[in-house]
Amino acid sequence: MRFIIIFILLGAFLGSCTEPRDDLLTLRDYMAGSFSSAAQAAADSQFYDIRLEMKPIWPTRTDGYWFYVEQASAANLAQPYRQRVYRLTQENDSTFVSTVFTLPDPLRFTGAWQESEPLKSLTPNSLTEREGCAIILNKYGTDMFVGSTAGLACDSDLREAVYATSIVIISPDQMYSWDRGYNINGEQVWGAEKGGYIFKKTGGAGQK
């Protein structure tokens, strides 16, 4: 079912051609930056104005590209509701993996994306991997990466959920993200119902 949804969504996110380059580096540049769902929220009251910050960290590491990720309502930026670390790696010629980690005492890192060297005091050993929650991405066309979580392995305890799913479409100037939580009966208990959030890139690498 997740693949049917992904292919339905692809048509709306086809972009212009880009110069041939290393795909992992391209994906890193697409992910890095500041994003906003303000335009979607203005057009549809069922969506909130959300700000998403994805700041590269630990540039000397050779085990993938790392990001500090912070997500908050535009009305309350000082109280983010999601803080994560992502590690981006390449599995084969066409498959990429964004592994998700949680932070110890995350609120003390609020706003760290504004620092020149965020999370400098931490190492990957300080983090906890969210097993089963990695996003598996594949490249489509010349400048689009599409992926999702695999199966029902991403545990969630938010609002009586037992598992969560995510669908992601990444292109040069925007990111589509549809996160949903389901209870033991397979009923959705959190997340947008009619579709995912469209985050327009407002700053950072890869912005058009």
Provide a brief overview of the structure:
With 208 residues, the chain is mainly β. It contains three helices and twelve strands, in the order H-H-E-H-E-E-E-E-E-E-E-E-E-E-E.
Structure description:
The structure is a single chain. The chain is mainly beta and about 210 residues long. The protein has one domain: Lipocalin, CATH 2.40.128. Helix content is about 10%, strand content about 40%. A 10-stranded antiparallel beta barrel has the order 1-2-3-4-5-7-8-9-10-12. Strand 3 and strand 4 form a beta hairpin. About 5% of the residues have low confidence.
* Element-by-element helix/strand order: HHEHEEEEEEEEEEE
Q: From the 3D coordinates, which CATH architecture would you assign?
A: Beta Barrel
Rg is 16 Å
Q: Roughly how many Å apart are the termini?
A: 33 Å
- Determine the CATH topology: Lipocalin
As laid out across the biggest beta sheet, the strand order is 1-2-3-4-5-7-8-9-10-12
Count of DSSP-assigned helices: 3
- Indicate how many domains the architecture comprises: 1
- Structural class of the helix and strand makeup? mainly beta
Helix and strand arrangement:
Elements: H1 2-10, H2 23-31, E1 33-36, H3 38-43, E2 50-57, E3 65-73, E4 82-90, E5 95-102, E6 128-129, E7 135-140, E8 144-148, E9 163-171, E10 174-182, E11 188-190, E12 197-203
Antiparallel strand pairs: 1-2, 1-12, 2-3, 3-4, 4-5, 5-6, 5-7, 7-8, 8-9, 9-10, 10-11, 10-12
